[in-house]
Amino acid sequence: MASLPSVLPARPAVQDDTTTLDQIHASVGKITSPEITPIYICTVHKCFRLFPNQRNLTAHSKKDHGLDAVDEKNVVTWNTLAPSNTTMNTQS
Ligand SMILES: [Zn+2]
């Protein structure tokens, strides 16, 4: 499996002088919002896995990182994190 080097060689940015205005207007893409496209990225130990909702992120954090709750310092998101009261009480 091919992989990128950890450090890529730097080069100057150049202006795009080949794309036409018609091509830009014909391109596929749209503006979205946190409500339409929720994004939650796990940053525990540079994991960087992407999740579409906090519930899946919480399940991942518990399963793969052994964390009982999602800490906002371990998440990159443009959504609002719900209070982390997701600790499951399995004691009886
Ligand atoms: Zn993770």
Please outline the helices and strands:
Blueprint: H1 21-26, E1 40-42, E2 50-51, H2 54-65, E3 75-77
Antiparallel strand pairs: 1-2, 1-3
The structure holds zinc ion.
Residues 42, 44, 47, 49, 60, 64-65 line the site of zinc ion.
Folded structure, characterized:
The chain has a domain at about 40-80. Helices cover about 20% and strands about 10% of the residues. The protein contains 2 helices and 3 strands. It has helices at about 20-25, 55-65, and strands at about 40, 50, 75. The radius of gyration is 19 Å and the shape is flat. Bound molecules: zinc ion (ZN). The site of zinc ion (ZN) has 7 residues, from helix 2. This is C2H2-type domain-containing protein. GO terms for molecular function: zinc ion binding. Keywords: Metal-binding, Zinc, Zinc-finger. It comes from Crepidotus variabilis.
Q: What's a quick, concise take on this entry?
A:
Keywords: Metal-binding, Zinc, Zinc-finger. The chain has 92 residues and is an alpha+beta fold.
Which tags fit this structure?
92 residues, 3-stranded antiparallel β-sheet, 20% helix, 9% strand, flat, disordered C terminus, binds zinc ion, zinc, zinc ion binding, Znf_C2H2_type, metal-binding
